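Supplementary Text 2. Reproducibility record for the structural model of the 762-residue chain.

All settings were left at their defaults, and a single model was retained for analysis rather than an ensemble. We include the record here because the model underlies the residue-level annotations in Supplementary Table 4.
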Amino acid sequence: MAGSGRRSLAELSVDEFLAAGFESEPDGDEEEEEARPRPKQRERGRPQAAARKKGKASEHKDQLSRLKEKDPEFYKFLEENDRTLLNFDASDSSDEDDERLHVPPDTLEEASDEDEDEDEDKRKTAKHKKADTIPVSLKMVEEWKKAAERRLTPRLFHEITQAFKAAVATTKGDNDGADPSKYKVIDAAVFNALVSFCVRDLFHCLQELLLIKAPKNKQKLVLPSSSPIWSKLRLDVRMYLSCTIQLLSCLTEASVGAAVLQHVNATVPYYLTFPKQCRILLKRVVHLWSTGEETVRVLAFLVLNKICRHKKDAYLHTLLKQMYISFVKNSRFTSPNVLPMINFMQRTLTEMYALDTHISYQHAFIYIRQLAIHLRSAMTIKKKENFQSVYNWQYVHCLYFWCRVLSTIYPSEVMEPLIYPLTQVIIGCIKLVPTARFYPLRMHCIRALTLLSENTRTFIPVLPFILEIFQQVDFNKRPGRMSAKPINFAVILKLSNANLQEKAFRDGLIEQLYDLILEYLHCQAHSIGFPELVLPTIIQLKSFLKECKIANYCKPIRQLLEKLQENSAYIASRRQKATFGVASRESVEQWEKQVKEEGTPLTKYYAQWKKLREKEIQLEITGKERLEDLNFPEIKRKKQEERKEEDKKEFKELFELDTDSDEESTGIAVKGKSKAKAASDDDSSEASSKDYGEDDDDEEGQYEVEEDEEDVEDDGDSDEDDSTEAPRKQRSGPRGLSRADLEQLAQGGEDVVEDLAFSDED
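Retained model, structure tokens:
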């Protein structure tokens, strides 16, 4: 058999080959031989394991049978409660359970003090390593700088980057987890010199060392990894780039941050060779783009744009998502100071979306759909929380942003299908709560629709939402109160009930309506159907002029009406000369293009008005009043207490008689003030009554006093004892006292003085 088993494979038949098994070693890895045991070994191992299992099972059964004889009560208890132990089968046991059992060692080691000594030794060695670090001095920085200018070597570059790492490590705080550097930077002057050298000069020398040739096409970047000596510098460059990102996150001074960002912008090709560092950089720069100072924001955008233009497929999708989320987070509150930054984020993010329309469509579809879902939930559930999810600054800024994106990318077959759903979302937002308190939000939505309609050449019916305000607001109604400053509609979404009663509300509303109508219709001024388009507006404006009795409101509306009628007549006269029919669309477009190039009366007027209006808006955004540049003389009014003292000095002898004569001369010149005079016995209050009389000539004083009158009357009704006497005092107040009455009062005063003269104290 041995001889037959060792015969060559050619001499064996198929049956002999299968019966003999694979005794020869197969060609393959040793791991496969171990993982796949031979059939004979398996057949030999199985009966042994089965015998072991059967031996253990039989022993266990014998033990149970003996237990039945020795302790029948306990055996009965097991039968009732746990029969699985009695119904033992040989298949239940396995060698794996035995292998999993932990076998304790024969001898246990005792803890000694040697381990603690070893830990202390390790700490001491770490301290010695830290003590061995070389402090960087200004002289060393100057030597490195001169040597790099002469000729930079990989060894010198390694030394400089190690020192730069030590400098950046001082800004981190706790550096126990970081790899130690052989240098340390202690002095602030050394830190500034080293960082400025690395940021300004080091990479210019590195470019010469790598021998990177400038590409013929400037739009393409040559990566430094193409250099033959890149492998010697790769680790040091990666470490330097990581430290630069860390430095960027620690800086608080805007000027220093701007300098580091300029350096980062110049080293973008190096970041592109390290994807991990590039992702960390993008995350940090997005934060600076959304929260930094103005120059820092601009430089951060340049870095983001440069990276995405050259590695669009790798970074654009995730970067657009990060930037959009940062934009939404930082547009939660809007003020005159924050509004320019929000506009900057909108414009720059629009530039990023314009890099790839296919990726932009995916993002725009998802986010516009989210806006529509919020609006639908607000329309169906109609709760305060759902309304607030739509009527907030983040929602409004997102609507305006997507209008800006579609306007900028137009014409684009990819993005054009999103114009209609976005328009429907904005119109639904206007109609959600169509009350006067949300007129500012409506105006923001109208401006977004106007922008979208103008740049995408899409007709959107915006005028009905503007003309509706003329029908809802009564401009002839006298305002309930005056306000110190005009209302800035650019930075508010909702008006309070007090704002609706102010005169500034109607003044600002007329101004906004004038602006919105003019901005929308100047886009359609060259349209061949302008006369028919503007007809409802002309009818509404004429109706307003007939009903409105306030000259300040009628003047701008009349001017606007004249400009619309003039432009309508111009278009009507031009199209009468046309020789083509309405059905020829190409001829109509060519005619409109020609009229637009020549200009219409409304577009010419709009260009002049726009320049003046932009100056006014800049003043409003900066929080300045429009009359500030006129240098009106400032009226300084004295306080009431100062007036009292001066009056007492000037009319020292006749003070009491003058107060009575004031009552006689003034009468009830001021409505409602007599009640306050009758209630107070202070003589000095009469001296200041003329001041209130001057303020009461204005509308604010009159209406505020009426509110005070009602309060006083309510207080008078609540007092039951004085309810009959109070009206008499109020009615007697306006009557002037005659000279004889004054003499009687004077005589009565003498009797009181006599009583006081003979008091007990004297």
